Amino acid sequence: MIDNPLLSVLAGAERIPFRDILPEHVEPGLDALLEEAQTAIEAIERDKSLPSYRTTFGALEDAISRLNVAFGVVQHIESVAANDAFRAAYNRVQPRVATFYAKIPLSSALFARFLSLDPSSTTLTATQRRHVELTLRDFRRNGANLNDETKGSLLAIDVALSERTTRYAQNAIDASNAWELVLSERSALAGVPDDAVQSMAENATSKGLSGYRLTLAGPVYLAVVTHAEDRALRERIYRAYNTSATKAPYDNRQLIGEILELRCERAKILGYANYADFILEERMAKDSARALSFVEEIHARAKDHFGKEKSDLQAFRRELEGDDAPPLEPWDVAYYADKLNKSRYEFDEESLRPYFALESVMKGMFQIAKHLYGIEVQPWSDPPVWHDTVRGYEMRDGEGKLFARFYFDLFPRERKRDGAWMHGIVSGLGGPHQALIVGNMTAPVGGKPALLTRREVETLFHEFGHLLHHCLSNVSIRSLAGTSVPTDFVELPSMIMENWVWDEAALDLFARHYQTGETIPRDWIARMLRSRKFRAASALMRQLGFASVDLRLHTTYDAANDGEVTLFSRRLMNDFAPAALPDDYAMIASFSHLFADPVGYAAGYYSYLWSEQLAADAFQRFRREGLFSAEVGGAFRKEILSRGNEDDPLTLYVNFTGHEPSLAPLFERLGIS
């Protein structure tokens, strides 16, 4: 056990030995940490001394800190680099970990000990009072006041939810990995950019195949559905992508129903009308009625613009193909929208790729962070990475003091979960913060560097905003630090960071041709900025559709009355879709935001729109006072990035902006009057 690297993953450790953590370490390591944490909690429960913050709430923080970090590391490896043995070990130990965490707020002895501390004591700091308040609320919300029998039912639900959401996540990965299409002729990919085609050829070669291997990885899917002239090919990959995880042995449909039932039952045991009301009580929206009202308000404002965008796209197709051109199908939308964008704005998104070499983009992104927040980012000379393509970096303050380390894992590969996310591994108290960004972006191909799309650049900036929120945290209590804030506030730092992708001066820092070093031509930038509002209502509707389905599933959905969950979701999504969805549309079966975690973004997908409102409004201060203003950046760091959950999110927001949030700047940015 002494040699188990999981036991060296301390809350203040400067290096995490990712590659040294093997399948045989997972169970014994986590079991040892579970026993250690349980022993520490039992000591708090038995303590008869006069309570202090240090011996109650602070002691619980310490009791679970090593387990938190180690389990987070194991979860990360399982999502990006697990083999069958590692996954099997994770699946065996995961229910025990879930049971441990679920039992904490159900401990009567622990709750009684916490209640014995006077939360108004003058010996508590403001941050400690906030921690006491939120912890007691969390205990009450999760069953501390229930009788033993009901607590047992709640515990069983939590364990079942953990097991089912883990299976859902693994099915989604495996279903995506299981699909491939190998084409023998280059002509079958007419219209698809050369670099994407070469990547498919290299992928085939890596599998010992000839031709071109298509997968459901994001860069491949988008390249085909946006550019392939072969309509049948576009349809084939669209259907595969949007029916993933609906066939044995990776069928998630029954799991979705079970997860929804368990969440609903859990909420009702705790006294809530539905799961959304339970979840949203501690968010900025407060309840499902307000979240639904928010979504419906935006929908009402955008639907006329959306209708016009749909009719414009169909009219454009008729211009190209004649009055008898058939109605657009979902696999036609991106294809014709790209052509319309080129026609209307004389702007080709693909033409920007040579200016978005990953290395240059990251360098410019780090420069922007330096201007705003006074930090230096440099490569980490010897990071303990989990894959050869992963890069490590160090973050230092203006005096050269190291305060954070982080990793970028940005390219698709098998056994890696799709999408992009930031994971805060360690909130450093006594050691550096540690975090990582995972993505599935365009990889280097044909001897060229990784050349990103503008959307991928925006995603990178978005996730870096999350990372700054974690790494610039200056909160003395880990459970309140960094991104440990309500979900409808956590996207503010990430979304506000996206704005620098659309600024000419910022682009000059990182958008340079990978061969010549030249900046993007001025007229191209002007066209790009004009095109920002192109089909903005359609993009907004996509988010509104996801948010609406999420809220309905967690408020009013009833399988007996509403039918099978994927069919119910498709009916709802049709109102927000740019073209009628096919009968087999089942994106919900691989919608990991909602079902790959016991909580995740369930009943909270509206948070992206809520935070987009906050970001558009808060960015007005940067626009007024300077996009590279160290003063404004310092204020954003002081009032938002460094504060974590030390205060109510609305208070933090008003401290920075001087007012409560308004939707007007968002509608202005989107061109929706």
Structure, explained:
It is a single chain. By secondary structure, the chain is mainly alpha-helical. Among the domains are: 5-145, Glutathione S-transferase Yfyf (Class Pi), Chain A, domain 2 (Up-down Bundle), CATH 1.20.1050; 179-242, no CATH class; 354-535, Neurolysin, domain 3. The protein has helices at residues 23-46, 57-80, 84-103, 108-115, 126-141, 148-178, 194-206, 218-227, 231-242, 253-269, 275-280, 288-321, 330-345, 358-373, 454-471, 487-490, 492-497, 504-510, 522-530, 536-553, 559-562, 565-574, 592-595, 607-625, 630-641, 649-657, 664-670, and strands at 181-183, 212-214, 376-379, 391-396, 402-409, 421-426, 433-438. The strands form 2 sheets. Strands 3-4-5-7-6 form a 5-stranded mixed β-sheet, with helices on both faces. A hairpin with a 6-residue loop joins strand 6 (421-426) and strand 7. The chain is globular and about 85 Å long.
Care to give the gist of this entry?
The protein has 673 residues and is mostly helical. Among the domains are: 5-145, Glutathione S-transferase Yfyf (Class Pi), Chain A, domain 2, CATH 1.20.1050; 179-242, no CATH class; 354-535, Neurolysin, domain 3, CATH 1.10.1370.
**Hey, roughly how much beta strand do the residues contain?**
5-15%
CATH class of one domain: Mainly Alpha
Class computed from helices, strands and strand pairing? mainly alpha
- Low-confidence spans: none
Provide the CATH topology of one domain.
Answer: Neurolysin, domain 3
Give, in spatial order, the strands making up the sheet with the most strands. Answer: 3-4-5-7-6
Known CATH architecture of one domain: Orthogonal Bundle
